[in-house]
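PROTEIN ENTRY
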Amino acid sequence: MLGKTEIDKTEALIDSAHALKDALRQDRHRPTYHFLPPAGWMNDINGAIFWQGRYHIFFQHNPEGGWWKWMQWGHASSVDLVHWVHHPIALTPTPGGPDRDGCFSGGAFL
């Protein structure tokens, strides 16, 4: 069981991480015309479609951190390809399933 000191240190680290995240979002050098996820790591934008007046993209995404791990598919959409709305994760691995190590690029549209 954690003591009060360890809990206080953990809470301070979490607060510090949130403050850093907020500061980085305001960084004037953060790209604005290059798509970025709201947090974490991403690559391999694909599955781009135009549907019901919006551009939709899907991308490999680890929302837990800035490194490649347990890949999921992120989803975002835009009316102008500049201002993006981030949607919930589109595909996520099934624990113990054939995709347990991650959802990777492929090709399908239904």
